[in-house]
Hints:
Aldehyde Dehydrogenase, Chain A, domain 2; disordered N terminus
Amino acid sequence: MSAKSRTRTPARELLFGNLWEYDPAPETASPHLQDRYTLFVNGKWVAPKTKKFFPSISPRNGEILAEIGQAGAADVDAAYQSAAAAFPAWSKLPGAERGKYLYRIARLLQDRAREFAVAETLDGGKPIKESRDFDVPMAAAHFFYHAGWADKLDCVMPGKKLAPLGVVGQIIPWNFPLLMLAWKLAPALACGNTVVLKPAETTSITCLKFATILQEAGLPPGVVNFVTGAGETGAAVVNHPLAKKIAFTGSTAVGKGIQRALAGSGKKLTLELGGKAANIIFEDAAIDQAVEGIVNGIFFNQGHVCCAGSRLLVQESIASSVLQKLKIRLRSLRVGDPMDKNTDIGAINSLKQWEKIDELVKTGVAEGAELYQAPCVLPQRGYYYAASIFTNVSLSHRIAQEEIFGPVLSVLTFRTPEEAVEKANNTPFGLSAGVWTDKGSLILKMSSELKAGVVWANTYNKFDPTSPFGGYKESGFGREGGKQGLLEYAEMV
Length: 493
Ligand code: ADP
């Protein structure tokens, strides 16, 4: 079945006949895109020495949004040289002065929030209501938060002073392009480091637009440099001898390769990799809230979330009623044009990712799990996937073990808290988990026994710049956010 040809009975028709049709509510603000973007090195726009460009395609309709420069090793080297030249002055600036730049950046991003939200949605496919209400405000919040730390670094670890590391190389993924940029840049700059950052090849646009904010803020040239390209460019960022630290967010396979490449190099490394989180619902939970939490846990950002609650563990006694409510709720989710303000599930980020999701879904069916897809009409153009739930899943199924990174939920049941812990921890990953129960004691027990960097209780996918985020096992190491996140960009002296 092709991404473009699947049609299903509209959800509203099933529920209400044809009476309750929504009017389209398209976002109309301009993203102010250029036809072509070069690299941002030493505060200036420079053509890639490779002379090569690649297209950034909108998953919303398959159209080319802009051409992006492909940085080669010589371009990455120029970016590192400029970051190294900027480091002495930037690192010696009083923290209060560095804080002013971060504050200014946050305010400028707020001023241009709608423009950035539209660009993010067009480039990555996420619903406009998410980029508008989550990605962009959270990105600004990270700059505000770290602006506050810049002159208080001596208070992070009592009795110790923090010194910056030098030039740091940062590689970010395509699921939260602007937000991941903020998670990486803000603490690095607050601590006095200079940066070479590479966005993901399918979502470079908001990073490159962000360069104009850095220019408006008057950030000294070379403090932040953006190089664009795919894996080869990323490898050049990782392996450059001037890098004192590499921060990577992406797939576990690439993360493992980076760890191997850096072994013995003395470079500091943080990895934020994949996940296969359990969202655990006990029989005494507030079921309607839990159903909302399940939906938010797996369908937020089309399931392109490393901490997505992609395995639902539901206590056997309530499994059938939870599933019934969940299926009804799914029918009211609107899948479609991410630029429509009513859309709940937008476009899958790329055709490659669509094919990966579809392959795993087909494997789930072949392995004997039962697939339910919410009825919906998928747009004819672009990459869309119906919200999907698998029941009759066993722990050994690939859909229970591997990260799908799409709108696909695998449902398992349990009888006792011990069994829930056993099943939740039965994964190579350890990034996040959710617990839904009325009992505080059970929340404490579960959160101490679940091997996950973040455990949400009676909520899911809640983020805050003050709260450290990161994983165990194959989900990586190091923390982003909070004091712990700052310590990843500094050494104690
Ligand atoms: P996904 O498979 O989900 O696309 P990746 O881990 O491939 O995730 O991508 C995350 C980021 O890592 C992107 O910016 C990508 O360009 C970059 N990347 C891919 N391969 C490498 C590599 N070998 N070295 C460094 N960065 C890489």
